[in-house]
Design a protein that fits this description.
Layout: H1 5-15, H2 37-48, E1 51-59, E2 62-71, E3 77-78, E4 89-97, H3 108-132
Antiparallel strand pairs: 1-2, 1-4, 2-3
Helix pairs in contact: 1-2, 1-3, 2-3
Length: 133
Protein backbone atom coordinates (compact mmCIF):
# COMPACT_ATOMS: atom_id res chain seq x y z
CA UNK A 1 0.00 0.00 0.00
CA UNK A 2 1.47 3.32 -1.13
CA UNK A 3 -1.04 6.01 -0.19
CA UNK A 4 -0.60 9.60 -1.28
CA UNK A 5 0.13 12.40 1.15
CA UNK A 6 -3.42 13.70 0.75
CA UNK A 7 -4.84 10.23 1.50
CA UNK A 8 -2.78 9.88 4.68
CA UNK A 9 -3.71 13.42 5.73
CA UNK A 10 -7.41 12.69 5.22
CA UNK A 11 -7.14 9.45 7.21
CA UNK A 12 -5.39 11.35 10.00
CA UNK A 13 -8.02 14.08 10.04
CA UNK A 14 -10.79 11.49 10.11
CA UNK A 15 -9.10 9.74 13.05
CA UNK A 16 -8.36 12.69 15.34
CA UNK A 17 -10.36 12.79 18.56
CA UNK A 18 -10.08 13.82 22.17
CA UNK A 19 -8.46 10.41 22.77
CA UNK A 20 -5.58 11.16 20.40
CA UNK A 21 -4.81 14.74 21.47
CA UNK A 22 -2.13 15.69 23.96
CA UNK A 23 -4.15 18.82 24.82
CA UNK A 24 -7.59 17.51 25.89
CA UNK A 25 -8.41 20.71 27.83
CA UNK A 26 -8.28 22.76 24.61
CA UNK A 27 -9.40 20.14 22.08
CA UNK A 28 -12.86 20.36 20.55
CA UNK A 29 -14.51 19.13 17.34
CA UNK A 30 -14.30 22.60 15.79
CA UNK A 31 -10.48 22.50 16.15
CA UNK A 32 -9.75 18.76 15.76
CA UNK A 33 -6.03 19.18 14.98
CA UNK A 34 -5.38 20.80 18.39
CA UNK A 35 -2.75 18.76 20.23
CA UNK A 36 -2.38 16.20 17.42
CA UNK A 37 0.98 17.37 16.05
CA UNK A 38 3.38 14.94 17.71
CA UNK A 39 1.58 11.74 16.83
CA UNK A 40 0.54 13.01 13.40
CA UNK A 41 4.09 13.98 12.45
CA UNK A 42 5.27 10.49 13.45
CA UNK A 43 2.58 8.89 11.28
CA UNK A 44 3.45 11.10 8.30
CA UNK A 45 7.06 10.02 8.86
CA UNK A 46 5.99 6.35 8.96
CA UNK A 47 4.59 6.63 5.42
CA UNK A 48 6.95 9.10 3.77
CA UNK A 49 10.19 9.29 5.76
CA UNK A 50 12.15 12.51 6.00
CA UNK A 51 12.79 14.43 9.18
CA UNK A 52 10.75 15.76 12.06
CA UNK A 53 10.73 19.48 12.80
CA UNK A 54 10.41 20.83 16.34
CA UNK A 55 9.09 24.38 16.73
CA UNK A 56 8.80 26.56 19.80
CA UNK A 57 5.31 28.01 20.27
CA UNK A 58 5.28 31.55 21.63
CA UNK A 59 2.50 33.72 23.00
CA UNK A 60 3.98 37.17 23.00
CA UNK A 61 7.53 36.91 24.30
CA UNK A 62 6.96 33.72 26.32
CA UNK A 63 7.37 30.18 25.07
CA UNK A 64 4.08 28.41 25.65
CA UNK A 65 4.80 24.98 24.18
CA UNK A 66 6.24 23.06 21.26
CA UNK A 67 4.93 21.93 17.90
CA UNK A 68 5.99 19.15 15.54
CA UNK A 69 5.79 19.07 11.76
CA UNK A 70 7.59 17.23 8.97
CA UNK A 71 10.28 17.80 6.40
CA UNK A 72 9.70 15.34 3.56
CA UNK A 73 12.71 13.56 1.98
CA UNK A 74 12.88 16.12 -0.85
CA UNK A 75 13.07 18.95 1.71
CA UNK A 76 9.45 20.03 1.37
CA UNK A 77 7.97 21.21 4.68
CA UNK A 78 4.64 19.65 5.62
CA UNK A 79 2.51 20.53 8.63
CA UNK A 80 -0.54 18.32 9.05
CA UNK A 81 -1.77 20.28 12.07
CA UNK A 82 -0.69 23.84 11.31
CA UNK A 83 -4.28 25.05 11.42
CA UNK A 84 -4.61 24.35 15.16
CA UNK A 85 -3.11 27.58 16.43
CA UNK A 86 -4.86 30.57 17.92
CA UNK A 87 -4.12 34.06 16.59
CA UNK A 88 -1.97 34.79 19.64
CA UNK A 89 0.34 31.81 19.04
CA UNK A 90 3.44 32.06 16.88
CA UNK A 91 5.85 29.33 15.73
CA UNK A 92 9.56 30.14 16.00
CA UNK A 93 13.02 28.56 15.88
CA UNK A 94 12.41 25.38 13.86
CA UNK A 95 14.84 22.53 14.47
CA UNK A 96 14.94 19.67 11.97
CA UNK A 97 16.07 16.26 13.26
CA UNK A 98 16.07 12.55 12.46
CA UNK A 99 13.29 10.54 14.01
CA UNK A 100 14.35 8.62 17.12
CA UNK A 101 14.05 4.85 16.76
CA UNK A 102 12.10 4.37 19.99
CA UNK A 103 8.45 5.23 20.60
CA UNK A 104 7.74 8.51 22.37
CA UNK A 105 7.86 8.24 26.16
CA UNK A 106 4.82 10.45 26.47
CA UNK A 107 2.06 9.23 24.20
CA UNK A 108 3.19 5.85 22.86
CA UNK A 109 -0.31 4.48 23.45
CA UNK A 110 -1.90 7.43 21.61
CA UNK A 111 0.54 6.99 18.72
CA UNK A 112 -0.20 3.27 18.41
CA UNK A 113 -3.98 3.79 18.51
CA UNK A 114 -3.91 6.64 16.01
CA UNK A 115 -1.54 4.74 13.73
CA UNK A 116 -3.87 1.71 13.78
CA UNK A 117 -6.89 3.89 12.96
CA UNK A 118 -5.10 5.57 10.07
CA UNK A 119 -3.87 2.26 8.67
CA UNK A 120 -7.38 0.75 8.90
CA UNK A 121 -8.92 3.73 7.11
CA UNK A 122 -6.29 3.57 4.35
CA UNK A 123 -6.75 -0.19 3.92
CA UNK A 124 -10.53 0.24 3.71
CA UNK A 125 -10.12 2.98 1.13
CA UNK A 126 -7.75 0.78 -0.89
CA UNK A 127 -10.24 -2.11 -0.79
CA UNK A 128 -13.06 0.16 -1.94
CA UNK A 129 -10.92 1.40 -4.84
CA UNK A 130 -10.08 -2.15 -5.94
CA UNK A 131 -13.74 -3.20 -5.79
CA UNK A 132 -14.85 -0.26 -7.94
CA UNK A 133 -12.24 -0.93 -10.65
Amino acid sequence: MNPSLSEVLQALQDSWSIDSTDDPENWNPSNPSRGQCGMSSLIINDYFGGKLVLWKVFVGEEQDGVHYSNELPDGTPFDSTGDQFWDTEELKEPLSFERPSELPKNGADRYLRLSDLVRSKLEREQEEKSIST
